[in-house]
Amino acid sequence: MEIQSPKGTRDMLPKESHLWQWIEQIMREEAALAGYREIRTPVFEYTELFERGVGDTTDIVQKEMYTFLDKGERSITLKPEGTAGAVRALVEHKLYAEPLPVKMYYLNNPIFRYENPQHGRLREHHQFGMECFGVKGPTADAEVILTVLKILGRLGMKDLAVKINSIGCPVCRPNYQKALKEYLFDNLPNLCPQCQERFNRNPLRILDCKEKKCQLITRDAPNILQFLCEDCDSHFERLKVLLNERGLKVSIDPQIVRGLDYYTKTVFEIVMNSPRGELALCGGGRYDGLVKKIGGPELPGVGFGIGTERILLELQNQGIAPEEQRVTDVFIASLGEEGRLPAFDLCMDLRNAGLRADWDHLDRSLKAQFRYADKLGVKLIGIMGGDELQKGALRIKNMLDGQEKEVSLKDAVQEIKTLL
Asked: What homologous superfamily does CATH list for 330-419?
């Protein structure tokens, strides 16, 4: 039987690589402009990190993690999200002792979730995320929101909107949870089995349920914004001012609670209007208690994550793509056996000069070499062999206009560089 990639995974093929590199370059540039530096954490972590950080009532921990025992009988989990690993690294390496805020981003970060593969949602996908530690005020919240919007805008995505909410803090959230449970109590038998389990452990998660019957029940649930303490309310109002000051289209959505237990205060989503309806492209929020929960000091944090495959899919749907770069600019063809070694040497010299050059590895005829070079879309072909080789010369053909010229071999690299 032919071996195929596992269900829920996909290959990035060479012809697609320029798309990934284009997206990643824009992400790197915008993160750097905002003072964020790259962090790379392991693909797997001890399972306890996600149980403590993400929360044992979440779908991720309960149903979606790839967890196994290693040869030392230690419970290991493939990374199901990016923030917990970044926080673990912050604590382990005492990055919080550096000048605050500590700003970091991760890129092409493999994420693993065992869920039913859907269009744009894979069991292995890749995330770009930004995390800011040490800022208590809403300026950091606004910064990450504005940065991801700028990234999406540079990629060409339109009709974007920001949805925000506040889910309070340990001071005010218990009062809301009590009111929510009172509202839901009479409808408890009508909730899906999973939400019935959430009722006592984490009723806030019921608002995030995707089951239609649960969404109908929670449609008129108490508004969490009416239960915020003074600190949370002030934080949320100042965030709205910051975003409105930048002229953003911001809407308040009390149903946004995000799917992870570590969030506090601000939660947000970047959505896009499309012919298929409203699509959530990115989500994030504030997690002021997570660093302490993982063993560090009291240190506030805020961040977001966005799936690269989701971005690629939406760019494809909108017909947005950068022009694909040529694989090779100049091809050195060899005529006869006597031309092969000089062609190889010239090709290496061109590469050392910073030019994208290739030659014939397969000992094809000159005609076949031309056909191959044409498929590569090269601008120039250098022909090595025959009378030109005897004279210490190279014949160069411009594939764009068909013109040819003969140059001295000792001047060939500079001449090709000039022509390109």
From this structure: Anticodon-binding domain (3.40.50.800)
276-291: b (≥16 Cβ within 10 Å) or e: eeebebbbbbbbbbbb
Give dist(CA 381, CA 135) in Å, integer.
57
**Where is 269: in which H helix or E strand?**
strand 264-274
Q: Strands 393-398 and 380-385: what pairing?
A: antiparallel
Q: What is the pTM of this model?
A: 0.90
Q: Which two tokens stand for residue 61?
A: 């921990």
Residue 418 tokens read as 């000039």
Q: 335: phi > 0 → left, psi -120 to 50 → alpha, else beta; which?
A: beta
Residue 400 Cα to chain centre, angstroms:
38
Per-residue pLDDT tens for 320-342?
A: 988 888 899 999 999 989 999 99
CA distances, 187 to each of 10, 181, 194, 277 (Å): 42, 10, 14, 29
Q: Is the pLDDT of residue 129 over 90?
A: yes
CATH T-level assignment (fold) for domain 14-172+228-317:
BirA Bifunctional Protein; domain 2 (3.30.930)
